[in-house]
Amino acid sequence: MRKQSLKLLFMLLIATITILACSSNSDDSDGGTGTTITLHEAFSDFDVDETDIYLDGSTVVIETTGNPNHTTPYWGSGHALYVAPTVATNLTPSLIPGYDGSATLRVPSSPTLAGSTTATSLGAIGISISGAAIFNDQEGNGDLSSAVVSLDYSGGHIGPAEYHYHLEPKAWSDDDENLIGIISDGFFIYGRKCNSTSTYPTDLDTSGGHTSTTQHTMTAEYHYHVINNLYTTTGRYLLFAGPYTGTPNAIN
Ligand SMILES: [Zn+2]
Ligand SMILES: [Zn+2]
C-alpha cells in the first residue's frame, strides 16, 4: 500500500515535469526559433520616389517607375533634370518623358547561388537605386561599339527601350563602393571597390561576384561588383555583363 502511494507520487512528478517541459518547448517555438523575414538593409539606398519595395511573404517585390532620379540629356531641354551632353557625342532621338519604363521585379529575400551560370540577354537585367534599368554589354545583336557614342556621362541612354545603363553610373558611383542596384537573380551589385577591404576586390569570379561583408551586412554574402577593367577604348567601365550566378527572374 505504501509502496503504491510512492509509485503514484513518482508518476505525478514525472507528469508534472513533462507538462512543464512541453510548455517551455512551445514558448521556444513561439519566440526563438521562428525566423522573421525583414527587408535587406541595402534596399534603404533605393530612391523612394522612383521605387516601391516591399515583402510579399519571403519574396521581395521591387516596383520602379523606370526613370532615373538624376540629370541626363535624355530628359530633354526644358525639363528640370535636363543637362547638356558632356560625354555623349550622338544622342539617340528619344527622350525619357516619351517612355513608360515602369517595371516590377520579384526576387527571393535570401537568394542563393544556382550552381551553374546563366547568360544575360537583351532588355532589363536589373534595377538600379536611381530607379532606371540595368542592361548588359550588348546593344541590338552586337556589342556596345556603335552605341557608345550615345551613352551619357552616367553610362545611360535610350536604345529602342527605356532609359538604361550599360556602364558605371557616374551619377552616383565613380570608382567607389556605393550600391548600384539589384540584379534580377536577387544579388546586389556594388561599385568597383568593396567595403570589406575599401579597395578593388581581387577574388571576383567571371561574373564580377564574390562573398564578403558589405556596408549593408556584417554577415558575408554573395554580391557583384562593377569590374575594374576598362571597356574597350571608351575609358569607362561596364556595369554588368553576367553571366548570372543565381537564377534570373523576369523584369516586366
Ligand atoms: Zn542600350
Ligand atoms: Zn564585395
From TrEMBL:
The UniProt record lists the keyword GTP-binding: no
Range of residues in the leader sequence: 1-21
PROSITE patterns (alphabetical): PROKAR_LIPOPROTEIN
Keywords from the named record: Signal
Domain YHYH residue range list: 105-199
Organism superkingdom: Bacteria
Pfam families: YHYH
Protein name (database record): YHYH protein
Organism, as annotated: Asprobacillus argus
